[in-house]
Amino acid sequence: MEWLSYLPALSRGALVTAAITLSAIAIGAVAAFVAGIARVEGGRVLSTVALCYTELFRGTSLLVQLFWFYYALPLVGISFEPVATGILVLSLHVGAYGSEIVRGALQSVSVQQHEAARALNFGRAQTLLHITLPQALVEMMPAFGNLAIETLKLSSLVSLISIADLTFRAQSIRNLTLDSAGVYSLTLVGYFAMSLVLMLVMRLIERWVRRGAAFPRAAHS
Amino acid sequence: MTETAQVAIDPQPPIIEFAGVTKRFGALTVLDDFNFSVARGEKVTLIGPSGSGKSTVLRILMTLEPFQEGRLTLAGMPYHEPNAGGPFKASDAHLRQIRSHVGMVFQSFNLFPHMTVLRNVVEAPLRVLGLPRGEAECRAVDLLAMVGLADKKDHYPAQLSGGQQQRVAIARALAMRPRVLLFDEPTSALDPQLVGEVLSVIRGLASEHDLTMLLVTHEMRFAREVSDRVCFFDKGRICEQGEPERIFSAPEQPRTREFLASVLG
User: Fold this and answer.
1) What integer pLDDT is reported at residue B90 of this predicted model?
2) How far apart are CA A215 and CA B116, in angstroms?
3) Which of A188, A174, A217 is nearest to A14 (CA)?
4) What average pLDDT score do residues A195-201 get?
5) Cβ-defined contact of A118 to B127 (cutoff 8 Å)
6) CATH pick for A2-210 out of 2.60.40.1190, 3.40.50.360, 1.20.58.2190, 1.10.3720.10
7) A:197-216 residues touching chain B, CB 8 A cutoff
8) How far apart are CA A3 and CA A181, in angstroms?
9) Between A and B, how many CB-CB pairs are < 8 A?
10) Does A124 touch chain B (CB under 8 A)?
């Protein structure tokens, strides 16, 4: 069983992939909420800044962004560790997509809810925090679930800035053994297993957000 | 105090006063040089065809709509600050001060779907007035008992009928202790058999001496029963107003007669 000998190296790579993915999801979620809320509530300056960020990172290739931060930025004297660069760029990239999810969900909260909040004299921050965001969160969850899986798969690109993630390890082993079928099959299984876990976790978070009989959909399920 | 003395010497300035207010939506003029005042504690019903501006009056009072010309005051406080950086503007702090005296009940209830009935009523006193939780919950439970829904406090809005939701919405508005309470067609979205339970709650409030009430409704019999004054709106102005008995039994204006004939059948 040749492929058993790949497992230790592939597992080490999978751990790196998992660490980068989870960090990028966490930091990306913060970026998504900050930019998404700024788009809706930020006034002219803040919402323009958020719009520029979102469109810049959605409109360019992740691979080129990684290369730019890893190879071009050091030329002006700013450089990070490869892993830090990978996490930063991946976070900003998925955060840009996430901010559109946050914006869309916030804007889908009905005008009547805003009017009810105003009639009860809630301030803008209170309305966001207690009225609109909790309702929008429920709308965001399915899309966030997709984005989390997408983050895992996109993370394979960090192998190209010399980070030893699952894809990087797979490439190295294949170059040594030339066993493309065995190595890449195992790698696919590795990604799939991780995405299953991620899907499960996101489903649990979604159920927690929908807790209680708060919405008709949940009330009958 | 005799009836005549009450009418002749009014010691209180009006709590609401519209003076020459004009409201436009684009090219459409909804309120046209509108003059209207309401005395403290008065219960006024606004009737008229749809699009005549009745709901707009309430929405302007709740600061949900700006207006373009004229002057509006609440207990002497103008809606527009003279130095807020432009005509017909007011700062957020100023508008919040106005809103603290006004409450509103909406046609479609607009309860917060992610909160239980109790939290719907508790949330604003807790966050906006800064009441301690115990006190806010005490107040909420009393109000829910008053609207007959004490046993539903842990339900979510989606689990209630329309009539029950509207009663919760009334309790929620009252929890902020407004001096002026606005009802914007509170029974229009309800099934006919649920209208009565909401009207009986409003009827109870009509006996509160200090609460000023403005009610937009199509329930003519109810308007006749609870109001001190009925105003008939037509084309952005009050076409005719007076005591309900007179408006309903002997309307003077042809437009009023026409309208009443059409709605009373």
Assistant:
1) 84
2) 11
3) A188
4) 96
5) no
6) 1.10.3720.10
7) 212-216
8) 10
9) 75
10) yes
pLDDT value of position A1: 60
Contact (CB<8Å) B113/A123: no
Query: How close B169 gets to chain A, by Cα (Å)?
Result: 10
Place of tokens 């009050």: B238
Token pair, residue B67, equals 């207006």
pLDDT at residue B190, as a whole number? 94
In angstroms and rounded to an integer, the radius of gyration of the C-alpha atoms of chain A is 21
The C-alpha atoms of residue A81 and residue A85 are separated, in whole angstroms, by 6
**pLDDT tens profile B114-146:** 999 999 999 999 999 999 999 999 999 999 999
- Which chain B residues have a beta carbon less than 8 Å from that of A115? 62, 64, 106, 110
Would you list the domain boundaries of chain A? 2-210
Contact A61, A131 (CB under 8 A): no
Q: Do B106 and A116 touch (CB under 8 A)?
A: yes
Name every chain A residue with its beta carbon within 8 A of the beta carbon of B173.
Answer: 119-120
Q: Is A116 on the interface with B (CB under 8 A)?
A: yes
The CA-CA-CA angle for residues B235, B236, B239, to 5°, reads: 70
pLDDT in tens, A111-142: 999 999 999 999 999 999 999 999 999 999 99
Q: Does A108 touch chain B (CB under 8 A)?
A: no
